[in-house]
């Protein structure tokens, strides 16, 4: 296989910084969850990008995001594949073990979807008359009608799985539900289910739907137990997904290593974006050491080719994964602030200027720019969802300069979100 030749042709032309502080070659222990959005990290380890920068990535597959969080905090990991809200939550002091964490690199955009049980989706079709080709908002509105029937009949509310309370999945699931007029805290029951277990939980009837990253939505639809009803791009195309997390004191004491890591990840991300490399990437990801899922499903996921269910309904989502293009790896403070707004919206925290500043500090574009010497031309802070092709599904525009007003605009939000705290978090 001429993979290394391909790497040299498509990899980054950027050279790593000189070894000015004598850190030398490093072995970095990196935790990850078996998801396609770990592609950049896995490719950096498997296809020579880390080695080129004098680094060895010792990848450790974990079972839950809470484990990843704790093992990074307890110094069992040097870096970690993390949910984009996890560093924000840590800097706000939220969660059971809020050890400070920063994100100097994003692992790309896309990858999530929402899947409901076949039984629940068929009931949506019966009650609301939606078609097999209904869009994300129509599906949410159809679910709202079913929930009204369920409540009238005194039936148990559906149980829906997401991966972690401070996760893109939680906020995107809630955003989708609320856009359809559903209160996520009153009309359904949201629980945490580790990503690799979602398909089995749906098949067993333990949950009625889930929001998770690839490939587990396609695994469920391929098994005939689930129907994909929305994708991340339907909710907000630019929504942040996964990041590389690290402890701030570790980054400060290993500046050269951090820069070399970012250079390696940037080259790997560029390689992952090249469709010519997707066969090789899919084979690597399918390995039992990593995702341990069928290679054909992973290949289709990388191409954005979805089997929505076992009936043959299909959908192609352009740029379902963007690993490098358009600065997909840039850790935008705006994204951290939108995450903060959703934490406020759903009563996980309250607004304060101190909280605003803490959320911004979770994402570190300065480390990205230091390593690569580049970054977006536009300002880090500005409106989101105001451009064609990058709209929120409910039409709202995010203005980080007036967070309380933004949250108050939502008709569906936690009652706690109506009480903004002026005290510091």
TrEMBL record:
Keywords: Cell inner membrane, Cell membrane, Membrane, Transport
Keyword Ribosomal protein tagged: no
Source organism superkingdom: Bacteria
Coiled coil: none
Localisation: Endomembrane system
Composition skew (Polar residues), residue ranges: 1-21
CDD domains: PBP2_NrtA_CpmA_like (cd13553)
Region feature (Disordered): 1-22
PANTHER family in UniProt: ALIPHATIC SULFONATES-BINDING PROTEIN-RELATED, BLL4572 PROTEIN
Name used for this protein in its record: CmpA/NrtA family ABC transporter substrate-binding protein
Organism: Neorhizobium phenanthreniclasticum
């Amino acid at each position: 296989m001429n993979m290394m030749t391909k790497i040299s042709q498509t990899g980054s032309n950027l050279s790593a910084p000189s070894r000015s502080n004598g850190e030398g070659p490093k072995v970095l222990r990196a935790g990850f969850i078996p998801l396609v959005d770990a592609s950049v990290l896995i490719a950096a380890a498997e296809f020579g990008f880390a080695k080129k920068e004098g680094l060895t990535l010792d990848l450790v597959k974990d079972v839950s995001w809470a484990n990843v969080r704790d093992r990074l905090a307890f110094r069992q990991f040097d870096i970690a594949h993390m949910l984009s809200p996890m560093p924000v939550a840590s800097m706000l002091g939220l969660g059971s073990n809020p050890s400070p964490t920063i994100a100097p690199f994003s692992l790309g955009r896309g990858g999530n979807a929402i899947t409901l049980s076949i039984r629940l989706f068929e009931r949506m079709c019966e009650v609301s008359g939606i078609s097999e080709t209904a869009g994300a908002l129509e599906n949410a509105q159809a679910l709202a009608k079913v929930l009204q029937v369920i409540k009238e009949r005194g039936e148990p509310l559906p149980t829906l799985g997401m991966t972690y309370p401070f996760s893109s999945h939680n906020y995107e699931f809630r955003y989708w539900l609320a856009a359809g007029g559903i209160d996520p805290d009153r009309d359904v029951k949201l629980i945490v289910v580790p990503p690799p277990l979602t398909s089995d939980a749906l098949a067993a009837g333990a949950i009625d739907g889930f929001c998770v990253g690839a490939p587990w939505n396609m695994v469920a639809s391929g098994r005939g137990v689930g129907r994909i009803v929305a994708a991340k791009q339907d909710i907000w195309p630019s929504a942040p997904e996964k990041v590389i997390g690290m402890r701030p004191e570790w980054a400060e004491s290993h500046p050269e290593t951090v820069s070399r890591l970012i250079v390696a990840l940037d080259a790997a991300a560029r390689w992952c974006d090249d469709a010519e490399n997707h066969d090789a990437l899919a084979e690597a990801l399918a390995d039992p050491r990593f995702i341990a899922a069928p290679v054909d499903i992973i290949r289709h996921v990388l191409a954005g080719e979805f089997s929505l269910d076992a009936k043959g309904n299909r959908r192609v989502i352009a740029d379902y994964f963007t690993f490098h293009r358009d600065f997909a790896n840039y850790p935008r403070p705006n994204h951290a602030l939108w995450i903060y707004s959703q934490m406020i919206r759903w009563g996980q925290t309250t607004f304060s200027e101190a909280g605003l500043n803490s959320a911004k500090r979770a994402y570190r574009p300065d480390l990205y720019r230091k390593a690569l010497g580049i970054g977006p031309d536009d300002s880090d802070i500005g409106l989101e969802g105001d451009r064609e092709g990058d709209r929120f599904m409910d039409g709202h525009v995010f203005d980080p300069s007036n967070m309380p007003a933004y949250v108050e605009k939502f008709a569906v939000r936690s009652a706690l979100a109506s009480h903004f705290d002026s005290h510091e978090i």
